[in-house]
Amino acid sequence: AQRVTQPEKLLSVFKGAPVELKCNYSYSGSPELFWYVQYSRQRLQLLLRHISRESIKGFTADLNKGETSFHLKKPFAQEEDSAMYYCALRYSSASKIIFGSGTRLSIRP
Amino acid sequence: SAVISQKPSRDICQRGTSLTIQCQVDSQVTMMFWYRQQPGQSLTLIATANQGSEATYESGFVIDKFPISRPNLTFSTLTVSNMSPEDSSIYLCSVEPGHTEAFFGQGTRLTVV
Questions:
Q1: A34 and B101 in contact by Cβ < 8 A?
Q2: Residues of A in contact with B102 (CB under 8 A)
Q3: Which residues of chain A neighbour B106 with C-beta distances below 8 Å?
Q4: Interval B31-72: pLDDT, tens
Q5: Cα A97–chain centre separation
Q6: What parts of chain A have a pLDDT lower than 50?
Q7: Segment B1-30 mean pLDDT
Q8: Alpha carbons B85 and B100: distance in angstroms, whole number
Q9: What mean pLDDT value characterizes chain B?
């Protein structure tokens, strides 16, 4: 079965430090992978998709098929990055999205 | 993109009662999705609602417990029936216009006492 694993429930880093939120998935094919973010008192929204290969708010994520990972990275954390981050997978455009359990990122001043 | 209005935003309900959650989308969409997010856990898909047909439920969810209506292409309701404290959760509706990304309502925080 397809599964998304986010091993860290909470990640706390200092402002200006690098950030890496881990995501591993189990699927043998070529999935679509996403990172969704929920800021305090806001709704869940898309941060980035692997097929876009873009940097959003300084965040990037590279799909590593060998390691079945899609870690989210940012070189210098900012206080406004504090939020709940969900990694998600879809194995086709017609299939449902499967979410990881989420990682709460806390940026300390 | 899509903007979803979901209500109520929160409610406290007595066990044994039912609550109906409404979602209104600002554009016509084929499918609407209902999720549950239990404390400290991931989002779990409850069902997919298509206009003009019965909703498709995921494993572990049944129509008698979570009846869904989809009267038109911009609106859907989810009812949580005969509630127990285990139903306390956040319920979210979502749409995926163009199958590119999911847009979410602001969620309904349900507490059953």
A1: yes
A2: 36, 44, 46, 97
A3: 43
A4: 999 999 987 788 999 999 988 888 999 999 999 999 999 999
A5: 14
A6: none
A7: 96
A8: 35
A9: 94
Q: How close A27 gets to chain B, by Cα (Å)?
A: 18
Q: Cis peptide leading into B8, omega within 30 of 0?
A: yes
Name which of B58, B92, B101 to mutate to probe chain A: the one with the most chain A Cβ atoms within 10 A of its Cβ.
B101
Q: Is B104 exposed, middle or buried (0-12, 13-18, 19+ CB in 10 A)?
A: buried
Among candidates B42, B96, B107 on the partner chain, residue whose Cβ is nearest the Cβ of A99: B42
pLDDT surpasses 90 at B23: yes
Q: For A49-57, which contacts have Cβ atoms below 8 Å and span 24 or more sequence positions?
A: A49/B100, A49/B101, A57/A81
At which residue do the structure tokens 């300390």 appear?
A108
Q: Please name the member of B42, B100, B103 whose beta carbon is closest to the beta carbon of A100.
A: B42
